[in-house]
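Lab notebook, page 48
Experiment: co-folding of the full assembly
Goal: obtain a model of how the components sit together before planning crosslinking
Operator: M.T.
Materials (sequences as entered):
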Amino acid sequence: MTEDPNELAKEDAQLDEIVKRGPSGAIALAGISTAIVIGIWFIFYFAVFLPRGVIQ
Amino acid sequence: MAIHPSSHDVAERVERRWAILVLAIVVVLVGMVVYTGVHWAMMPPSRVETVRPETLHVSGEFIESNLGSAPEADGSVTVRIVAQQYSFTPQCLVVPAGVPVTFRATSSDVVHGFLITDTNINSMLEPGYVSTFKTTFDKPGDHLMPCHEYCGTGHQNMWAHVKVVDRAEFMQMADKMPANSRRLSCVQ
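Observation: model returned without errors.
Model output:
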């Protein structure tokens, strides 16, 4: 597939516009899933682990 | 910062913020583990106490007449257990609630697991080593003590009972011990 340099430059500029707006979708996905995992960890720590008592 | 940041700047900024967030999460989790270990002295056991597994039953602390719950002079209780393929001896442990209990256990053959359900007691028993744990049971109840470390073909049937009773009831049992036994258990 041959593209002339003008086409390539235009596509690059379009890409740049998209990238410039930031990866908000990726951040939302990664952020929510991380928050869920860490949240579950804390829930287990305080609601299950600590109530089961201290072992020494 | 430029009014119109380039795509490269945007990507770099987002990546830096995400990296900082992840680092912060790791620091908090590690901090909690350190706090649990240092403040409550709750961490994987680091003492190493050895014993000869071949002669467990003939001499020393883990002979059969010494297995079970032993009230100590200071009011605490020491429970001694031996694990082997495929049973725990004694198979039914009785301990008082609200009193410090020290478990001392070992294995006479292979590695076994040591876990009491609904508590944080969760470790392993290795032949040649004595595992020691100290805890206090809040209230009376029945717990299971399964072996959770694969130890052979009978592993799935290897479990004991732990009965937590009122301190008063435990002391009564201690007083009524028959003359020929010196340790308590609920084995029938």
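Interpretation: Chain A has a mean pLDDT of 89.
Next step: discuss with group before ordering constructs.
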